[in-house]
Design brief:
By secondary structure, the protein is of the alpha/beta class. The protein has seven helices and ten strands. Strands 7-6-5-8-9-10 form a six-stranded mixed β-sheet, sandwiched between helices. A two-stranded antiparallel ribbon has the order 1-4. A hairpin with a 5-residue loop joins strand 2 and strand 3.
């Protein structure tokens, strides 16, 4: 756990952008019971947390993707983060729609993107990786060289890691599930004995045995 991972973990917990409830699980649309609720859009309405997040994303881009020429946000959650981070870095940005418009120029990529440009995708959250990989695919089809992804938070789920690796997509996150679980225990948001249950969920979300612990 590095200082930035811990700082962002504390930030997300403080505004309940990541909220743990292992004894009263949330139910996902898929029916899976989850001990965690995540809404990183809340970072936009907290000035201090938003500042930490955008400066953190800028730091990751400079460190891991120094050749980046343009940032592309995912629609909709990544758009604001891409815009603010691009402003900090003095870079152009755009975003990728979930589907092409049915009017006008029928764009799916908004903003100017030249073939061969080196792109970093900005995403708020990585779980199974499906949505961000769709964005990467659209950008690649448009001729962009996608250097990788930066995100605020990743679950580190096996399915997501395998999907990203299979598509040859690198992701760097400000913080991750394991760090936030550990910090949540340190800060008394959850009991220390709950951390093992949370990691069991992360390792296999479809196995609900962690609920009975």
């Amino acid at each position: 756990m590095n200082n930035l991972e811990k700082l962002i973990a504390k930030d997300l917990l403080s505004i309940k952008a990541v909220f743990f409830r292992p004894d009263e699980p949330f139910t996902w649309a898929s029916g899976i019971k989850s001990p965690v609720y995540c809404d990183n859009r809340l970072t936009l309405t907290s000035v201090n947390v938003r500042t930490d997040v955008e400066n953190g994303l800028a730091t990751l881009i400079k460190e891991y993707y120094p050749e980046a020429e343009v940032l592309m946000g995912t629609s909709t959650a990544g758009i604001a983060h891409a815009a603010i981070t691009a402003h900090i870095l003095g870079m152009p940005m755009g975003y990728v729609r979930s589907g092409a418009k049915d009017h006008g120029r029928q764009n799916q990529i908004e903003g100017r993107l030249e073939r061969g440009q080196k792109v970093v995708v900005v995403e708020d959250l990585i779980s199974t990786g499906g949505s961000v990989l769709e964005v990467v695919s659209v950008l690649r089809e448009a001729g962009a060289e996608v250097l990788g992804v930066v995100s605020i938070f990743t679950y580190g789920m096996k399915k997501g890691l395998e999907r990203l690796a299979g598509a040859n997509v690198k992701n760097v996150s400000l913080t991750n599930f394991d760090v936030i679980a550990e910090v949540a225990a340190e800060e008394n948001y959850i009991k220390k004995e709950d951390v093992e249950r949370l990691i069991a969920f992360r390792n296999n979300p479809s196995d609900e045995s962690w609920i009975k612990n």
